[in-house]
């Protein structure tokens, strides 16, 4: 869906909306209640993005360990904001659609963002 459509959904949402940027004005959105929706966020995740839309291990993952990824690496929608209580040492407290602009996250994740956000980051660095 378009950014405008997703922004309307985020503004009206009663709960979480699972979406991934795929282009400047295109987003994949899982319908509410989808079985694989509501993956878990972490500010120090054990998963990150590999090419092109594959979550891969960022580090060794212990058996039974919760799988997490940083939602900031997959959404650049200004209206997205989520409280975080992941309890990581560097927990940001709030995850936003503007977090791709943070230099600390750019350094931490390198090229491990969705392609759409990588394009934004690279354009912003010029």
UniProtKB/TrEMBL annotation:
<protein>
    <submittedName>
        <fullName>SET domain-containing protein-lysine N-methyltransferase</fullName>
    </submittedName>
</protein>
<dbReference type="Pfam" id="PF00856">
    <property type="entry name" value="SET"/>
</dbReference>
<dbReference type="InterPro" id="IPR046341">
    <property type="entry name" value="SET_dom_sf"/>
</dbReference>
<dbReference type="InterPro" id="IPR001214">
    <property type="entry name" value="SET_dom"/>
</dbReference>
<feature type="domain" description="SET">
    <location>
        <begin position="40"/>
        <end position="71"/>
    </location>
</feature>
């Amino acid at each position: 869906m378009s950014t405008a459509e997703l922004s309307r959904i985020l503004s009206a949402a009663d709960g979480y909306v699972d979406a991934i940027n795929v282009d400047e004005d295109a987003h994949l959105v899982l319908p509410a209640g989808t079985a694989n929706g509501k993956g878990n966020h972490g500010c120090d995740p054990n998963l990150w993005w590999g090419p092109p839309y594959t979550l891969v291990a960022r580090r060794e993952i212990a058996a039974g360990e919760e799988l997490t990824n940083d939602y900031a690496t997959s959404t650049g929608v200004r209206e997205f904001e989520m409280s975080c209580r992941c309890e990581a040492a560097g927990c940001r407290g709030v995850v936003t659609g503007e977090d791709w602009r943070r230099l600390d996250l750019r350094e931490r994740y390198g090229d491990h963002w969705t392609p759409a956000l990588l394009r934004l980051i690279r354009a912003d660095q010029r």
